[in-house]
Amino acid sequence: MLDIKFVCDNPELVKENIRKKFKDAKLPLVDEAVELYTRKCAANTRANELRANRNKISKEIGVLMGKGLRDEAEEKKKLVGEQAKELATLETEETEIEARLKEVMMKIPNIIDDPSYLKAAAMTEPRWQDCMEVNNTQGTEPEWTKKDGVLLSDIVYDSSRDENNSFDLYIPKTASKTGDNGVMLFIHGGGWSDGEKSDMAYLAKRFARKGFITATLDYRLFPTNVNYLLGKRADFTMDDLLADVDQSIAKMKSVLDKKGYQANKLGLCGYSAGGHMALLYTGLQNSEAFQEKIGVKVPKTKVRATAGSCPVGSYVANDVVSKVFKNLSGRLYDDEMKLAYSYEGFADETYPEVCIVTTKTDVPIHYSTRGIHEHLDKVGAAHEYHVFEGKEHKLGHVFNVLHPDWEESVAANQAILDFFEKHKK
């Protein structure tokens, strides 16, 4: 059975496969599957909102009762009761939709021409995101205003190309021109082939309000798996993605210097593939041989702290995630470079302390993330490893980025913040 996110992201490709099998009568199933999934996500989003509200109101009731405000507490209890009825209806609707969606998906023919491609496509984070991800990505963090500080948008760090070559910079009012500031560069994920800097805007704003100068980065993207299957190839390699990170850091340092801000306490934070890039760049700065090999000269401003949310990290390990990374090109097919770009190659006992956030229910990415932790333990590299379990929610891939207002996500992001605060001193 095909992956539903793959179907939603590539409906025409799925339909073309159906036509090739001369099963045109099944074409409407594709649109029905997309519609059902959209409804399922909408119901899921609303249900999660109600669960979060229930917890919030319950705490408010406790406060009111403690103050002897029984009438106000009773009103809150009525609201909880009303929302409980709505939640029960939604849960029933979700069950019914899920049953029909499974039935429809079972009838849509598989694409059997290239099984390894399908695995890779299912693993890549597509631009299609389910409703709850889109609705909750920005959480409830207020928009950035002049009261918060300065926002410099679309700062170009590489003028030799026209796209994916800029970053947004948040400078809080609390930033100092007399002392050194903590600076955090956020790197989005997306399987190295998708995503954009705005995906990390929520966390950039939140951490900037905690006193850090923050930036969100756009970088070159490899062809999606669909385009790869159609024969499209990138005219760049992973070397160039590292160069993007490198150039953006140098440009950011230059901009801040001109504005009178010291920015020597640099941190990197990325999720999924962005987490891999952050970890990889951190390893790169410690190896002159690696720098020479890929032609990247690391700026004098070294990365002092790095955090990864559900990062991937290896092209040589035996876990299922590592085996299906087929959407990259160039030197990654060279065995020596595969190792160099993997945690087994770039992290040894001299590797700087990093912070890793994950959940066991991030299947199958968790196997790769856990592999990073186990390797760092093996070589004796200090690191923080935080594994979160769902309480009110089922945690999935990069849960703290997609659902930052969940209790578990707040705790995960606080762990990252604490880590950066520790290394800022």
Describe the protein's architecture and organization.
By secondary structure, this protein is an alpha/beta fold. Helices cover 50% and strands 13% of the residues. The protein is built from 17 helices and 8 strands. It has helices spanning 4-9, 11-20, 27-66, 70-107, 115-123, 131-136, 201-208, 225-229, 238-258, 273-284, 288-294, 320-323, 335-340, 343-346, 365-379, 399-402, 407-424, and strands at residues 149-156, 166-172, 180-187, 213-217, 262-271, 303-309, 354-358, 383-387. An 8-stranded mixed sheet has the order 1-2-4-3-5-6-7-8, with helices on both faces. Strand 3 (180-187), helix 7 (201-208) and strand 4 form a beta-alpha-beta unit. Helix 2 runs antiparallel to helix 3. The longest helix is centred in the N-terminal third of the chain and has 40 residues, at 27-66. The radius of gyration is 23 Å and the shape is globular. Mean pLDDT is 83; it is low at 113-138 and 326-330.
